[in-house]
Amino acid sequence: MSKPNWGYKVQTDNQIDFDKNSRGLMLQILNIEPTFGNCIACGSCAGTCSAGNFTNFSLQRLNVQISRGETAKVASEIEKCMLCGKCTLVCPRGINTRNVIMAIKRVVQN
Amino acid sequence: MSKQITIIGSGIAGMEAAAKFSEMGYSVILIEKENKMGGHVSKWHNVFPDYKPAKEIISKLKSTLTKNIKVFYETEIENVVALDGKYYLQLSNSQNIESEVVLITTGFELFNASKKEEYGFGIYENVITSANLEEKFNSGRPIKTSRDATPKRVAFIHCVGSRDEKAGNKYCSKVCCANAVKLAIETKQLLPDAEIYSFYMDLRMFDRYFEDLYFEAQSKYGIRFIRGRLSEACENPDGTIILKAEDTLSGKPLKMTVDMAVLMVGFTSSVKTIDLAAKFGISVDNDKFIKPLDNHLNLNITNQPGIFVAGACTGPKSIAETLADARSAAIQVINYLQSN
After folding, report:
1. Which helix (H) or strand (E) holds A16?
2. What is the pLDDT of residues A69-100, one digit of tens each?
């Protein structure tokens, strides 16, 4: 028997709940590549991103999401990166973004 | 030529100017409403960007006040009469003084954080101001919450009473960004196991070394910055504070429980300065700070001949800027006296 459709549904919470979210992924990445924490969200990496030209991939956005413990989509997002390394060239904070990406891949795939 | 100068306010601007006047052979009357010199800076702990102890700055300034300086403590200006190019000041200690020039260095007041009721200062015990935190540092005791627990998570809230039309202050208070980052680092040093967060709109790390401070906060101390102005705070039964803000980088509202929230209170013009400006007939601007004759060439000169201004009574300033402004005012005052 199919479920009756009453015309309404439970809304998912749009709020970032810092107390519930885990920052385990952030801490693991920081452990592998400490410069991950130096981001100032300038967006240079996303602006120059080869993958970002064709998809909605943004390393800057991923950095924020990981820092806030919003990690549900990280594993699929990181696959969009082509590892061209342009983000490492432009980062004004000297973040080793290529190593950040490799660290994200390594942690989420384990 | 008169060799006597009256300075109102013995904070760092008044002290620095007084020292310059006395070095150049003038005698100074320094009028102070409190029972000691040093103003706000005497209440701070260490100051940015190099963590210099504020006490060291005050004691060095005091050591320069050696000769030809008379200080009236716990004294205010009751009345001012201008006559024949001279100012006659009636003081609250019932003395009268006569002066050709008056330098106003009355500084500022900290924003009264209880006006931002939605942040809960004065209602929730674990919401404190940056000035309260400086007092805690100065006390030398361990940092504890109101319930004597060691905080595990502390948040710094930028722009409290600044850049806020609802608080009556549209301007940026300039020094709080650097001060917040400095306080966050010091808090992390005292509480190495605590998570430290900073809620900001944009970080105005404009001056030399400020960006280094910011970089060090992220890279060495792991302080995390969240872009979004605090919208409201409320208290849990256990005394912890729930903060709600829009995380504007994620485009989502964010909720966080902290053990202590520190409000970075900004500068406001002091009520007594506004009152004094009225007594001298000098203009104040829309932001209620004293209005200099112009904003480039005559920063220390007012619309009244012989009345000069220096320091934070003309708007938010760092310590270094205040001291430079005081020295600049000293030159203007002496030029005025020599040309009269």
Report:
1. strand A16-17
2. 999 999 999 999 999 999 999 999 999 999 99
Return the residue of A nearest to B222 by Cα. A37
Where does residue A48 fall: left (phi above 0), alpha (psi -120 to 50 degrees), or beta otherwise?
Answer: alpha
**Contact (CB, 8 A) for B7 and B17:** yes
Q: How far is Cα B327 from Cα B45, in angstroms, rounded to an integer?
A: 24
Length of chain B: 340
Separation of alpha carbons A82 and B43, rounded Å: 55
Neighbouring residues of B168: CB distance < 8 A, sequence distance ≥ 6: B268
Distance CA B202, CA B85 (A): 48
Residue B5 contacts residue B26 (beta carbons within 8 Å): yes
- Helices H / strands E in chain A, number of each: 7, 1
Q: Residue with structure tokens 């991939």?
A: A57
Q: Is B251 on the interface with A (CB under 8 A)?
A: no
Contact between A67 and B255 using a beta-carbon 8 Å cutoff: no
Partner A contacted by B194 (CB < 8 A): no
Question: Please, which pLDDT band fits residue A109 given cuts at 50, 70 and 90?
Answer: confident
* Chain A residues within an 8 Å CB radius of B254: 15-16, 18, 68
Dist. CA B96–CA A66, nearest whole Å: 67
Render pLDDT for B130-178 as a digit per residue (tens, 0 to 9): 999 999 999 999 999 999 999 999 999 999 999 999 999 999 999 999 9
Distance from CA of B145 to the nearest CA of A (A): 19
For chain A positions 65-104, those within 8 Å of chain B (CB to CB) are 65, 67-68, 70, 93
